[in-house]
Amino acid sequence: MNMSGYRNLFGAAAIMAMALTSCLKDSVQIDRPDGQGQEIRLQTSISALTKAPGLGEDGSGNFSPGDVFSLNVCGEADAMADIDYTVGETVLYWDGLGLPAGGKVSFTGCYPVHEAGDDGQFTFTASGNADLLLAKSVAVDYGSSSAVPLVFSHAMHKLEVEYVSDGSVAEEELDGVGTVLTALSSCVVDMMEGKIKDGSGSVPAEYESATGSPVSFLLVPQDKDNVFLKITCGSIVKTFSLPSKTSEGEPLSVLEGGCSLKVRITVSKDGIVMDGVQIEGWKPQGTVDGDITLSGID
User: Fold this and answer.
1) Going by C-beta distance under 8 Å and a sequence separation of 6 or more, which residues neighbour residue 258?
2) Which CATH class is domain 3-154?
């Protein structure tokens, strides 16, 4: 899928997601030259707690025909097959995988397509708003005729910052507020498990700056102490970190994959107040409160 098509899918209606889910349960039939062999059926879905292609209002959905994702199949004696799976087109057969017959076979998925090394791993860099969906390992018996259920979940954390005026600052001024995020920007993905490898984050790096409100960043899951926001409002520049507790009093130590913090900041002539954090269409992680004094806003 090209990137323009991927962005368009972000706004897909819930009814389209339901229709796609229905039609993708049946695999495309292609006759084999020898007319033999047991077909493998994949049944894909996207968790309601994630943001993904073909979204419904609750964040659930499925892929569109023509979407391509990486499929990793691991059999006995660690034999592996890596496949670029095209939804609605690719047809798989057990005897065509080149795996030893018998035993358990594990399936994992990754969207968009990424090529893993011999160890089944690759490095993912969160540049801009690069998305990453992972389907954790599902084990089935070799030769099974049942559909393999691959449930894709959002692996990144979404940090959204929204600026609002208390009335003393013109709304037009908020269009010029600049936000720069510093955080870990890359991680190692284990395709054999379908998850991000623990403790694989890189050194903190500065993400591309964003202007206006709201602005959002997709970042790798990480300790909240690695995350800093630098806000530029007129001639004032202020850097701050995230608090250690949510406004509900719950500890906030890790920005989890599949979660999203929405930081709402009120801008006034007297300063800037962080009003709270909310999550819409993602798995909730709580809200936070705090304030930052920025004097000298004219």
Assistant:
1) 47, 49, 50, 153, 154, 155, 157, 282, 283
2) mainly beta
Half-sphere exposure of 246 (CA within 13 A, CB side): 16
CA 85 to chain centre: 19
Here the tokens at position 177 are 């507020």
One fold for 3-154 and 157-292: yes
**Distance in angstroms (rounded) separating the CA atoms of residues 224 and 238:** 18
Q: Which amino acid is at 177?
A: V
State the alpha helices, DSSP H only, in the chain: 3-9, 14-23, 171-174
The pTM of the whole model exceeds 0.70: yes
User: What does the domain layout of the chain look like in residue ranges?
Assistant: 3-154, 157-292
* Residue 274 pLDDT > 70: no
Whether the bond into 149 is cis, omega within 30 of 0: no
Strand pairing partners for 219? 157
* pLDDT tens column, 152-197: 888 988 888 888 888 888 888 889 999 999 999 899 999 989 999 9
Q: Does domain 157-292 have CATH number 2.60.40.10?
A: no
The tokens for 114 are 């990424």
- Other beta carbons within 10 angstroms of residue 298's beta carbon come to 7
